[in-house]
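assembly run, all chains below
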Amino acid sequence: MTAPFRLTDSTLRDGSHAVAHQYTLDQVTGIVAGLDAAGVPVIEVSHGDGLGGSSFNYGFSGTDEMKLISAAVATAKQARIACLLLPGIGTAEDLKAISEVGVSVARVATHCTEADIAEQHIGMAKRLGMEAVGFLMMSHMLAPEELLAQARLMQDFGADIVYCVDSAGALTVPQARERITALVEGLDIAVGMHAHENLSLSVAISLAALEAGATHIDGCTAGAGAGAGNCPTETLVTVCQKMGIDTGIEPLALMDVAEEIVRPALRRPQIVDRAALTLGLAGVYGSFMLHSERAAERYGVSQAEILLELGRRKAVGGQEDMIIDVALELAARKAGQQEAGQQAAGQQEAGQQAVGADR
Amino acid sequence: MTVRCAIIGSGNIGTDLMIKLSRSEALELVALVGIDAASDGLARARALGIEAPHSGIDWFREHAAEIDLVFDATSAYVHVRNAPVLAGLGIAAIDLTPAARGPKVVPAVNLGEHLDAPNVNMITCGGQATVPIVAAVSRATTTPYAEMVSTVASRSAGPGTRQNIDEFTRTTARALEEIGGATIGKAIIVLNPADPPILMRNTVFCALPEGSDHDAVLASVEQMVADVARYVPGYRLKNRPVIEEGPFGTPGGLVPHRVVVLLEVAGAGDYLPTYAGNLDIMTAAAVRVGEAKAGHLAGVAA
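ok done. output:
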């Protein structure tokens, strides 16, 4: 029996949100060697926000991503190495650079309504002879038919595969199924599912996607990732084995990688805590979690309130700068409320005090 | 004297620019030149009594003697082809695409520096919004690394912007260095499809090395915001600028602090509604450069 789907492990890309993009060279080679030996066919490596993501806005990489990517290529014996790129953050030049070091899969991600900004990059990936994957983020924000229209654009640009990406971990199982069904029925190319764990549904959604015809699934070992994390690769592979779905991957070997290398590297347990569940509830981009935690602490406001407000403002992936903005407004409102009834000191003065305290 | 000018490109930017130029006293708009006779921009030009041919760059070959200055509002790829044609015809160009053929100009920072250049570049909308802030920080301290994040409403990003997104990031990042004075610059653009559309937002982060005078940085930034708002009325601070404590391991080295400046640009609502501040800042800055060139030409002639 051949594997009915291809698994992409993104521990070293999406999972790097969980370590604030601080993976070391040793961790990367150890994880790639383990996943490769276990039989994982595709391993994604890059900054959590894709190539060129190292920044004030998303967090600086601890080690230059090109060093990590080159080491991954050199370590993998059978697995293909993939990189993610978000147009607007990374550029076609980055694709040339990764192609030169031997990366053969380029995943090009846009917000689910903005597929047309990927034309330059999907085209470049194909010209470089790479497999091109279209990655429609925050797919919960679009109805299935509208998502299909965007996926068709990526197909027209030359994508080999299009993914429904639940970046906020906000989809329920039926919602994921109807999106995958629409894509499978309406596209000529393969369809993939990238699930998150904020509602504790990532494995269930991945299985539902397979039933609906998806042939590509993403996971992260130990569930590493933004928010409550990604679909845990070793759990998915174990469940598949019990269900008689041959993945070609050895579950026990994956469990070893999860337990011995990935989990010790994580800075916190990947659990559905209040912040993660709030992301799923409000439909907020998963990588906002750690940034909002820091902003909440810095400005003395509630993280849940920041996240809910970002959900109301329909912030999309990449707008991490808006977290500071919302935190400042909440802090000003709080200061205004505290001062009301005392002296009529304006918000501006309260703001100046906060700046002073910050220094 | 009046400087006779034309616009090439009848999309969002060209059409908004037409409305602004038709109010200018120093600049006389002769034509809006497109390539699609059915475009909305050309229809509006005709309604305003402005010539509206659709023969593209070829139109200038036949009318070179009647035009002193052209505003190129096409796209980066097209301007790369237009620039030598215009230069050959002896027509000065203000380039509103990220093609970056000529020196980059930000009115609040270096308006007077390139008045004689045959081709000047307006960088990008995000560059016009954020380069002044980086320049303001750089005049108060040294800036080893500066970063801007621009978020624009999906509806205000036309096909030119969407196909040229790499040129946006590249040209803007270089401008943060060349005009903003940062040692290393980085630019990020995000499109947001929210409905109703969001106002254009820009965030500037600058690395502040040990020993920076934070009060001087904040005062310099506030002064610069007022300077830009003089030619872009909708340009304002979204929130007060803040100094955040690190340390931050930037590409320009480890620094103890960063300044975060959150900006918003409301458009004047000339062509697209007010959410399209990205159009407005570009066209308002280009008009400012055009008028300065006109004033310079008048001075030279006198």
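The domain at 125-275 of chain B is CATH 3.30.360.10 (Dihydrodipicolinate Reductase; domain 2).

Chain B has two domains: 3-122+281-301, 125-275.

not gonna interpret more than that til we talk
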